[in-house]
Amino acid sequence: MQAKVLVVDDEAVARNLYSDVLIAGGHQVRAVASGAEALDAFAHERFDVVVTDLILPGMDGMQLLSELKRRRSDVEIIVVTALEKVEPAVRALKNGASDYLVKPLAPEVLQAAISRCLLTQRLMLENNQLRTHVALLESGQKIATTLDRTALYPVVLDSIESALQPRASGMLLLAGGKLSVAQTRGLDEAEQAELLAQLDARHLEVAEGRPVSMTVGGHSALAFAARDAHDVLGAVVAVDPAHADPASLSGASFLTSHVALALRNSERIAAVEDLAYQDDLTKLFNTRYMHLVLERELKSALCTGMPLALLFLDLDKFKKVNDQHGHLMGSRLLCELADLLLECVREQDIVTRYGGDEFVVLLLGADSNLGVQVAERIRRTVETHAFLAAEGLTVTLTTSVGVASFPEHGIDKQALLNLADRALYAGKRTTRNVVFVANPEDLERAEKAAG
């Protein structure tokens, strides 16, 4: 292994001897006669090893040792002296010397000491590289296993900041060919807009593993594509990175590949969760989802004071459809009804299949008056619709709807469900094909009349 060596000794004979020995061993050598000259040379050149005498004019070898280690802790320093006392050797080693040699030096002793220094340097470098790789692997694993996107974004930004030390950073998502900002640190709205104006999906798609360069807020910036196989799912942006050497950029690209994996995994998890909340037959939300959303929206309504209406409905005499046309036709009719219900409500409202031919509709931000209007719209739509026309049949049905609202009729989930259910069956016990509101007095009268 070849090294660049700085020899420091005030004796010309010693300098020439050490230089000749080291040059013969294949090393590059610079020889100086004092500590001041050594510091000047050290400031302008990078040396792997310094060989210095302990007794020097102006500045002794121990002071030089301390100063060199202060300037660059990874430099290997061999102290050479005619002193045979143990105390200077101990002091030199405590101050960071790699070795302590006593004059006169045999050439093979000096060569062996240089070889040991270079081996130590190589091992330290490999150890640091290994630590860096382990840290990258750990960061990549943490990113890839974070499946909640709200938790993923800060993990990604922490990792990219650790790798590149940027002034600012950002996480972008790509959907429908357009990039959007998921989360940023250190970027104001104008800088975020500038970033999106400069970067588009095409830049990321053609990058092929290389970061895309741009300028954001007057600073240089790099965008790393989060690519899963051939698909770009987003990008990680580092603005004015302090570290932009090949190793750091390679590490950032490695981390970004794990970002793509995490984004893809989160999509798969979301798809599975959607299936868990979806009714198998109608593809509406199911009862599990209805309970989850109703609890969430009631908590929000308690804080904001916004109303919420709940409709409980089922088909009147649906059993006749199954008896006359079979359960397959009955199932198709329920799917047709699901489509009708979705047409009768707003986009933000939630339609769920409660079970059988029973459905629950959550009208967000709606009071009982709006709830009754929507319930009437549903009742009229069902009453005038010819079901199963695509199967060559003409089936007409009616529906009864119970309406309960927050906070007028109840303030907790179970109370609203019970009241809407009671209102539904109060309507079915009277005329059917009716909308019945869960007013306590009307419910009591209807239930008493039914016996």
Helical region count? 15
Strand content: 15-25%
| Uncertain segments | none
* Mean of pLDDT: 88
How many angstroms does the end-to-end distance come to? 102 Å
Assigned CATH architecture of the largest domain: 2-Layer Sandwich
Quote the CATH topology of the largest domain.
Answer: Alpha-Beta Plaits
Radius of gyration: 39 Å
How many DSSP E strands?
Answer: 15
CATH class of the largest domain: Alpha Beta
The CATH homologous superfamily of the largest domain: Reverse transcriptase/Diguanylate cyclase domain
**Main sheet makeup:** 5 strands, parallel
Q: Specify the structural class.
A: alpha/beta
Report strand order across the widest sheet: 2-1-3-4-5
Topology as H/E string?
EHEHEHEHEHHEEHHEEEHHEHHEEHEHEH
Question: What shape does the CA trace take?
Answer: rod-shaped
Number of domains: 3
Question: In which range does the helix fraction lie?
Answer: 40-55%
